[in-house]
Design a protein that fits this description.
The chain is an all-beta fold. The protein has one domain. It has no helices and two strands. A two-stranded antiparallel sheet has the order 1-2. The radius of gyration is 22 Å and the shape is elongated.
């Protein structure tokens, strides 16, 4: 499996930018492969989780040494 030398144009649109764990993503895929000798038959993608933590530091008076 690999990329051929032919041209294929695809537009992939998700219904929103962020998802919670367990939430289903709705995806719209528009693929124009009229110029391909072997047309695209399927798409496969993965969503990866990015965690951002923001907070304020507090001195609790605990010595960790």
């Amino acid at each position: 499996m690999g990329w051929g030398a032919e041209f294929c144009s695809s537009k992939i649109v998700f219904d929103k930018n962020q998802y919670l764990p367990g939430e289903k993503a709705k995806v719209k895929i528009l693929c124009d492969n009229r110029k391909c000798a072997k047309p695209v038959q399927s798409f496969k993608f993965k969503l990866k989780r990015k965690i951002t933590i923001e907070g304020v530091s507090k001195d609790l008076g605990i010595n960790m040494t």
